[in-house]
Amino acid sequence: MNESRYFSVPGSDRRYDRNKLLAVLLIPLAMSLLQVSSVDNLLPAMQAGLDASSSDVQWVLSGYALAVGIVLVPSGRLGDVFGRSGMFVIGLVIFVLGSFACGLMNDAAPLNAMRIIQGIGAGVFSPQVTGLIQQYFDGRARARAFGFMGLVISVSVATGPILSGLFVAWLGDDSGWRWSFLINAPIGLIGLFFAFTLLPFGKERRTIGPDADANEREYVAQESAAGRPAPRKYGSKLDLDPVGMILLCLAVLGIMLPFMASASWRWFMLIGGVVIGVTWVCWEVSYKRRGHIPMVDLDLFRLNTFSSSVGITALQFLGTTSVFVILAMFLQNGMGASALVVGLVGLPSAVASAFAAVWSGKHALEKGWQLQVLAMSLATVAALIAIAVAWYISEGGAVWWLSLPLILLGCGLGCMGAANQTTAMLDVPASHGGTAGGVYQTTQRIATAIGNALVTAVFFAVSSGARTGSSAGNTQWFHAFGLGMTVIAVVAGCSLVATIVALAKHRRAETAEVLVSAEVGA
Which of 76, 220, 352, 480 is deepest in the core (most CB within 10 A)? Predict the structure, then answer.
């Protein structure tokens, strides 16, 4: 028996299996991600089945993403305080109920409302996945776990359009889109059964708080040495920082919504969101100075591994998450390809991404920064090659050739996901794992919303009025795709530069440590 595979929690005599724990966590995560990628293909079927307009169902996409982004950090904080297993189950229950309700709706408005409920559920359990991995996995085992997490993300994003397309093809428009939601109910119920059976509830809250691990004890000692009040122990008095939660939720709403809405007032809301965000930062700093435990301890950003990784992933998601959005529009609207063909063109990329994520997870602990440099180099080159291939397709070439640069992109993104996630959480105390995971994922959601709005705006500005099937139209569609991919390549290149700078900083720190050790030894 491999002892390192098992662990226990305070207050319980039971031995828990890390492999089974990881499976319980990742299957619901896959479900939540499928609900993002699969819905793009379902919008025409929803419009036909509900006799609705495109504007009627616009929040099927936006409402889910917005709800997830708003609740990620507060949910991570609640998991850190009350226990991540319990919050995971609560989130999964909300997600299952929301999914089931979505499949039963007969009008666009209640469907949009249920999608928001579904998104809240996903936002509640998603940061617990990161928090539980951070809490119960160490060293190489943690890096491998994040590697498998990257595998699940890659496969889910790529297979979603294929699965939803198959549902519609088999069952027709109305039943097809409904079962794309309803299928989550039986899978979710099975997931809940195994969650109650295999997750380490015990007296989990005892393992969370200022005295949870050596890193946290050192952190409290540093605060005391600096003359700052030591945070109260969670065990002595709960401190949820409700004002901080409300301010952050409003800030995320104000920043994300303008990039999802089309109303003229949206930019005033963006300004308000930024102002509230600054207010939230000031509140968190002040709250901690008064001896309380802030919702997000901003000293997390003093950890170079965390702050650098968050900045790098923000740049990455600002660009690369838009690739498949403009790819679908270029191939479907411009070249006349079917939704299923678009999904199949991206399938090899998903396979490559999955393998790269697992491989990266095995090496991320020792070579995290180097792997990120490699990953963003591949992503940048892939975007540029895709432009050349798109030109060939616009001149009459087969759409399948785009699979080649997408495979290269998949290798880069799969490698990047596992390496960046592992590096980001490397020095984060386990007791802050859920909150840190929430911050990390919220950054990705905001960057995705901004990036999609930016890249699609460029694409639509150039493709406006383009006709499908004509030589001139094909050229215009190519120009739209090419300019959009150029923006993506530039942003990916900026992420590459940031990663190179982080690698250089890491190497200088390592050199300084070696010199100090040599002086001490002498």
Answer: 76
